[in-house]
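Need residues for this backbone.
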C-alpha cells in the first residue's frame, strides 16, 4: 500500500475537492445546521460515520455483486438503500443515547438519507477505481472536509449574527454571501494534493 497515495487522496478530499465548498454537495445540512458549533460538529461526526460505513459496505457490493453480474446500472438505487439503512441506524442510536443532539439535528438527520455528498463519495470511490483502503481513506477525508467546512462556517455565522448588516442582508442572504466567500477561499488549494510530494 502506497502511503503517499493515501495522503494525496486524503488531502484532496479534505481541501482540494472539498465536497461542500468545491463541489457544492451536502448544502442542506451545511446551511441548516451550522448556526451552532455543537450541532455542526455532531452532524459532521454522523456524516463521517455514515460515509465510512457506506463506503465499507458499498465497495464490496459493487465489486463482488453488481459488477460480476452485469448489474452496474443498479448502483444508485442500491447505494441509496444502503445509505438509508445506515442513517436509520444512526437515528436510532442518537435517539437512544444522545437525545439532545437528536432533537437539535431534527429534520436534517433523515435528510442524510438523500445527502448527495454521501452518495457522491461512494460513487467516486467506484468511478476512480479505488481499492478498499483508498475508498475508506477518501470517505474519511470527505467527512473531515465536511467537518472543516461546517466548523468554519459555524464560526462565520456566529460572527455575522452579532454584526449589524443592512436589513436586506440579515439572515439567509448573509449566510449565502459568507458561504460563497468561504467557498472561493478553498479554490486556493488547487494543485496542492497533486504536488505534495514533488
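Answer:
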Amino acid at each position: 500500500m502506497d502511503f503517499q497515495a493515501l495522503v494525496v487522496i486524503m488531502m484532496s478530499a479534505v481541501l482540494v475537492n472539498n465536497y461542500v465548498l468545491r463541489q457544492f454537495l451536502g448544502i442542506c445540512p451545511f446551511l441548516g445546521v451550522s448556526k451552532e458549533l455543537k450541532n455542526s460538529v455532531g452532524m459532521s461526526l454522523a456524516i463521517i460515520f455514515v460515509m465510512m460505513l457506506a463506503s465499507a459496505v458499498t465497495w464490496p457490493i459493487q465489486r463482488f455483486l453488481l459488477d460480476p453480474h452485469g448489474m452496474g446500472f443498479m448502483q444508485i438505487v442500491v447505494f441509496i438503500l444502503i445509505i438509508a439503512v445506515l442513517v436509520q441506524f444512526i437515528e436510532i442510536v442518537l435517539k437512544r443515547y444522545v437525545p439532545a443532539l437528536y432533537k437539535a439535528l431534527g429534520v436534517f438527520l433523515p435528510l442524510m438519507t438523500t445527502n448527495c455528498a454521501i452518495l457522491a463519495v461512494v460513487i467516486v470511490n467506484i468511478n476512480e477505481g479505488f481499492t478498499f483502503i483508498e475508498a475508506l481513506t477518501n470517505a474519511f477525508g470527505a467527512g473531515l472536509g465536511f467537518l472543516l467546512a461546517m466548523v468554519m462556517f459555524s464560526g462565520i455565522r456566529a460572527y455575522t449574527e452579532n454584526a449589524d448588516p443592512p436589513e436586506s442582508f440579515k439572515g439567509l442572504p448573509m449566510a449565502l454571501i459568507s458561504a460563497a466567500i468561504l467557498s472561493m477561499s478553498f479554490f486556493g488549494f488547487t494543485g496542492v494534493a497533486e504536488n505534495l510530494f514533488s
